[in-house]
Amino acid sequence: MLDTMTRNYFIYSIVLISMLLQSCGSTDPSLTLDIPKEGFEVVQYIPVESDGRDTNALYLAPRRIKDDEFNTAELNVYIDSMYAMMLRKSGVGIASNQLGKRLQIFIIEAKSSNPRYKVLGPVAKQVFINPKITKTSKERKNFWHGCLSAHGEKRGNVATYEWIEYECQNQKGEIQQGRLEGFASVIFQHEFRHMLNGTYLDHANHFLSRGELDAKLDAEELPFFDLANDTLPLLIEGYVVGETLDEFHSHKK
Ligand SMILES: [Zn+2]
After folding, report:
1. In this structure, is residue 98 part of a structural domain?
2. 195 burial class (0-12, 13-18, 19+ CB within 10 angstroms)?
3. 138 φ/ψ sector (left φ>0, alpha ψ -120 to 50, else beta)
4. Is 32 a member of any domain?
5. How far, in Å, is the centroid of ligand 1 from the Cα of 13?
6. What pLDDT is stored for residue 230 in this prediction?
7. Is residue 8 situated within a structural domain?
8. pTM for the full model?
9. Range of the domain at 50
10. CATH of the domain at 200
């Protein structure tokens, strides 16, 4: 009798422990491809000294897309949703972290119809998954960055490499390599910054409101997109060219 009770107690304990383990291991929704029915919105910047960064996807490491997630409806639907949001917000790029989903995915595209950026030329739509930068120019260019995650914030002047070479995967999981220059290179590095955590607001030293910036650009008092000197902060500071995002996050404090 006692033996049976002990055995039953043992079985109940095992069941309880495994249920507890299961609930502990339940997946963080920010790490899945699921699109939430509510709250799928652009996450906003949080100032350095403010609380909330430890739970905000903009400041947390994104995970790699796994082999068995490529070429699936879930991945394609998720990326279509990212793209739809980018178009809705009139952005020229969007990173998954900005939507509260910590995934190594971003999209760039600048249409020639975008009045603000048409002088910089159109940029073809490209999706980058599990990206890394493999090579960069020595030269850097300045750019006055804004961001969908910096609503109401000032524009910030930071440097990006004039050109970069990258390696990433496409939605089928195929390895893609390429080189981007000009405006495409700027947008790539802006979105890549989101994968490293933080935004241009954490790196820029010079800020102007959109009105102030436009007035200075119109008067040609400022270069919009020109060679930058070494004193201008680099947007992707801390990233070692050639490393994966996982390697970057493993050595980051
Ligand atoms: Zn941004």
Report:
1. yes
2. buried
3. alpha
4. no
5. 49
6. 81
7. no
8. 0.88
9. 41-251
10. 3.90.45.10
Rg of the chain over Cα atoms, rounded to whole angstroms, equals 22
CA of 19 to the centre of ligand 1 (A): 40
Percent of the chain with pLDDT over 90: 76
Confidence band of 103 (pLDDT split at 50, 70, 90) = very high
- In the structure, ligand 1 is a single-atom ion and the residues with CB under 5 Å from it are 147
């120019």: which residue's tokens? 137
What confidence tier does 223 reach under pLDDT thresholds 50, 70, 90? confident
Cα(199) to centroid(ligand 1), Å: 6
Mean pLDDT for the stretch of residues 106-134 = 88
Q: How far is the CA of 102 from the centre of ligand 1 (A)?
A: 14
Q: Does some domain include residue 31?
A: no
State the distance from the centre of ligand 1 to the C-alpha of 146, rounded, in angstroms: 7
Output the CA 132–ligand 1 centroid distance in Å. Answer: 18
Of 194, 213, 211, 212, nearest to 203 by C-alpha is 194
Domain tally, the chain:
1
